[in-house]
Structures are given as C-alpha cells and as structure tokens.
Design brief:
2 domains, six-stranded parallel sheet, alpha/beta, 22 helices, 2-enoyl-CoA Hydratase, Chain A, domain 1, 22 strands, eight-stranded mixed sheet, 588 residues, globular, disordered N terminus
Length: 588
Amino acid sequence: MKQFFKFTFASMLGFILAGFLMFIILLGIVVSAVSFGKKETVIVPEKTILMLTLDQPVSERSSDNPFAHFNFNRPEASSQPGLNDIISSLKKAASDSRVKGIYLELTDLPSGQATIEEIRNALIDFKKSGKFIVSYAEVFTQKSYYLASVSDKIYLNPAGDMEFKGMVGQVMFFKGLLDKIDVEAQVIRHGKFKSAIEPFTLDKMSAPNKDQTLTFISGMWNHMLTGISDSRKISVDELNSIANEYKIQSPEDALGLKMVDKLMYKDQVLDELKTRVDAKDIKDLRFMKLGKYVKSPAVDNKSSENRIAVIYASGNIVSGDGNDESIGSERLSKAIRKARLDQTVKAVVLRVNSPGGSALASEIIWREMLLTKKAKPVVVSMGDVAASGGYYISCAADKIFAYPNTITGSIGVFGIIPNLQKMFNKNLGITFDEVKTNPYADYIPVTRPMNEGEKKIITHDIETIYSTFITHVSEGRKMTVAQVDSLGQGRVWSGVDAKRIGLVDEFGGLNDAIKEAARLAKLKDYRTLELPELKDPFEQIIETFTGDNTSVYMKKELGPAWPYFHYLSRMSHMQGVQALMPYEFDIK
C-alpha cells in the first residue's frame, strides 16, 4: 500500500510538473507572439528592391494575430499582408525614393481572379513612377503569368515550365456518395439556375449550369487575354492559338512565342537586378519583402478629421458574430451602424467577398446598409465573389464597383432537407417512432420524407424570401421587379456581364470605390477607418489555442481537398433558407 502511494504520488507530481512546464512554454510562445505582433518601425535602406512572392492566399485584410496564417515549416511565409496593405504599400512604394523597383518571384498564386486583378492594377499604377518591375519564375501558372505580364521583363528558368491552356471550371458532385449511404437530399428552390444544390441531386452539371459557368469563365479568360495582349503586344487571336494548340511545351517555346523575354537562372536574374540598382555585387542587393515594408512609416500621413469607413465583409454569411472566416450578421451590422452614427465618418465603403449564406442574416445586414445609405453615401467594392447573399447585402448601395472577373449575381434562394430514414433503417438498423400533439410538431423532419403539407410550407418560405430579395434589388438598382427576376433565377454572372445588365455600375477595385465615396461626400481630404475593429492580438492568440480554430491545420493537411471539405462542412452547418453561391467550383 505504501509502495502504491509512493508510485501514485510520484506520477501525480510528474503530471503536475509536466503541466506546469507546458504552461510556461505556452506562456512564452504567447508573450513572444505578442511581442512579435507589436508594430515595429522598419527602416528602408537606399536602393531597396521590393520583393513579392504572394505564394499564400491573400486575405482581404491583414490580421493582427501572429498565428493567423503561421506556417511552422516556413515562418517567413507567415508575414504575407492582406490585400488592403498590399495595395497601400505598392502606392507608398511608388513615391518612396528609397525603393528602386519591384522583383516578382512567382509560381502559383492561390488567390481569386479579382484579387490578382487588383494587385495587377496596383502594379500598373506603380510603373507610372518610372520604376522597374522584373519577374522570374521556375514555373509560371496562368494566374502568376497574368500578374507577371505587367513587368518590364519576364524571365523563366531554362529548365522550368509555363502553362497556358485556357480556363476550366470544375465541380465535385456528392450524389453518388449520398446514394451509397442512403441519404436523400430534399430540395426546394427558386431559380432555374440555382445550382447550389446540384452536387447533392445530380452526378453532373445541368445544361443551365453548364451554360452559366461557361459564360462567366469565358468572360474571365477573355479579360485575361486582353490584359496580356496589351502588356506583351501579342494579339488575342495569337494567344488563343497558343492555348488551343498547347504550343508552350518547353521554356524555349515560351521564349520563341515572346511570352517571356529571356531564359535565365536565378543568379543571372540577380546579376541584372544588380545592374538596375547600380550595386557592386550581388551581396549588396537590398531586398525587402512586402510583409516587412508594410511596417515602414507612410510617406504622407493624412490628419484630416473627415473619414471614410471601409467595412470588410468576407466569407460565408451567418447569424451571430461569425469568425475570421465568416460574415456574422451581428458583428457586421454593429460595424455598419457604428459608421452611420459616427459624425466624423462622411461615407461608407463596403468591401464584399462572399458567396452568400443565410438569407435571414443577409436581410439583417441589408437593413443596416439601407439605413446608412439614407444618412451618407454608401459604395460597394466587390472582390473575387459577391454572389447571392453577397449581392443581397450590396444591392442597397449608391454605387457598386466590381472587376471584370468578379463573380456576382446568383439572385435566388434554396433549402435542402436531408432525409436520413433509409440510412438509419438499412445501414444502422435504427428506427424512429413518435407521438405529437399537433400535425407539424416535428417540422422540419430529417428522419422521414417530408409530406406535401411540409413541402408547401417551406416552398412558401422560399418564395417569400425570393420575392423580398428581388424587391430589394429592384429598389436599389432602379429596375422593375420583372427585370430583376429575369436577371435573377439564381444565375451567376461575371463582372463584365453584370455591368452590361446593370447589376454593377463601374469596373474598379477598393481604391476606386473609396475615391467615388469621397466624390459623393464632396471630400478633398480624408482618412480611412477600417471596420469591424480587429480583436486584440492577445485575445486572438488565446482563441487560436483554445477555440475551434482548426482550419489553419486542416488546410495544411488536406491541401487541394480543403475547399471541398470546407464546403461540406459549411453545408452541414446551414440553418434556415439560404441565399448561397452555386456549389464549390475550382477555376484553373
């Protein structure tokens, strides 16, 4: 007994000491991270070359959480700023005499088409300063080449590769899986193009879905070709011919077709950069990564009391506060309300990058947008996607800006009710029985098929919400309800077509939207205020270690399969009627 007590006490003491040690280590990590996250003053040396890799997904807004995108294998990749800081830093660098040029070292760009377009346009503006842009890659994907095409010189590794083959939009379907496990997806929808439910009801794309998808990816492809043609002085017809015949099968092919300027190894590229900045040796080259340059002091600090609120709405639309990867109706509504009531805020820009989500949550946000529009100018800037619920929360604005390759529209609603009866009965041997006081006490059922009365109820909900949706769009866009209905039906549009049919007003990015907001508010001098306010870094770190923040790790482990897993996860947590973008598609 004495021996057992000694053993137990020793084990318990060891456990306590180990726990205390882990606490000290965790505390050290948190303290270090907070220190790391503090804003440092960066000194930019003369003859600096700004270096952009952009090999991590570009978020709409930089995070104050040091662990938000932390990569333990590549800590240097974790400092990539958000799109807001990328754009502002490129603008700052254009007038910074210490920055002599930009070096793009690119491979794949895991970001959306409109995000890349916004960065590309900022690089075009940077070139107006007369400073150089040089690009180099071991492998150019279509996205990275499109960005690189603005460069003065494009260099490809002699043993490298380059893809140029056209765009494809691919959809993953789950109907076969549901059939195997005996789950029936009961669907109620409005809109013949509302194909968000197709992965659960079909094993391939419907004809309307193929039509809309081909239309908007063709618009994206043509826009990309036009940009490359303007920069490289190669006709659109020739570029299509290169893709149609798969003419680039070696670096020599890319050079012969004038898609790149020279085949060079990296040391040769560094030699050229040395010449451009008049450095004596390669070791004298002063590169500064964009993530570090962001922290350097601004060239012009505006002190005006007038402000334009830039409010970020990024992710799936949900009820409540949401999180870093979703738009919570409560949190976003508070931010819009704060901007409306703040007398120093003279105009509001809502930056939307969302495939939609909860129709109810979208309605709550729309209401705050409408109230704000009555008080001061409101402008929307659309990112990669502002569809369905993303368009719902945008339609009340005075002006809507989008890029030609923004995905928008998808004005439609749907509901999916799973019938799990066969799965439980046949596969698990589980049955259900019940008694109820009233006919609809168990509405909405998932352990049996819906009856006609229940289908009628949910259909009424869908039709009511759709009618509300198109009425809001009608009032916001100054169209008749019939016109909106003809453009709606759940159809997805590219920015090019959305402008043609009146769903957006102008092509342009966030800076263009801010300038328009300033014009509408008759402001000459102003500052910007970014909302919602970011959480305290320490609070974010604690949430990273203690909350349900597994996405960072899951992304790393699942790799290319992550978007599909994330899509299924989102669908499984849906509540109520949805105004959501059709399916999770992959455009390459």
